[in-house]
Write a structure and sequence with these properties.
four-stranded antiparallel sheet; Mannose-Binding Protein A, Chain A
Length: 178
């Protein structure tokens, strides 16, 4: 009796989430972690960053800053917010992905850079999200990605622009959008 009730409840939760499209917006635990008493790192200098603008959708201009200073995913997000009043970049089309990967490839020897995506998992389903909460309407995952067994953050390979799942605690250069 108890087992059938549990299965019925799980079925109701799964059906509700399928209807809504995904689990509730989830913020990874790493986002809020800070070392007590640790001072805010200084904003990137001009020698540590490169700024670029490109046309966006509906006549808007998109501004990006590539920071060649390695940070964890959530610390990179904090730098984007504090220093550029922006966020890690969300990518919504092939052209933007290609231009950003070319910009980064010309300015770093790192194999990957942070972009603004992270994944959460519900049972065996992976739900990718952007830190700016915009629609996930484009992806360029490398073969074998995204990881299906744990939460991760999204990094772009400058050569080819493909994305991979990476532990959010890894220190990488990053792209801010502001």
């Amino acid at each position: 009796m108890k087992l059938s009730l549990l299965l019925a409840l799980l079925g109701a939760v799964s059906a509700r989430q399928l209807h809504e499209g995904a689990p509730e917006q989830e913020v990874p635990a790493e986002q809020g972690k800070e070392e007590p008493g640790e001072p805010e790192p200084p904003c990137p200098t001009e020698s540590e960053s490169f700024k670029m603008t490109m046309p966006g959708q509906e006549g808007h201009t998109c501004r990006y800053a590539f920071v060649n200073n390695c940070k964890t995913f959530w610390n990179a997000q904090k730098v984007c917010a504090r220093c550029y009043r922006g966020r890690l970049a969300s990518i919504h089309n092939y052209v933007t992905n290609h231009r950003l990967s070319c910009m980064v490839r010309a300015r770093t020897n790192h194999a990957r850079v942070w972009i603004g995506g992270y994944t959460s998992r519900w049972f065996f389903h992976v739900y990718p999200r952007w830190v700016d909460h915009s629609a996930w309407n484009y992806s360029n995952w490398a073969r074998g990605n995204p990881w299906r067994f744990w939460k991760s953050c999204v990094a772009m390979c400058p050569v080819g622009g493909q994305w991979s799942s990476v532990s959010c605690g890894t220190r990488l250069p990053f792209i801010c959008e502001y």
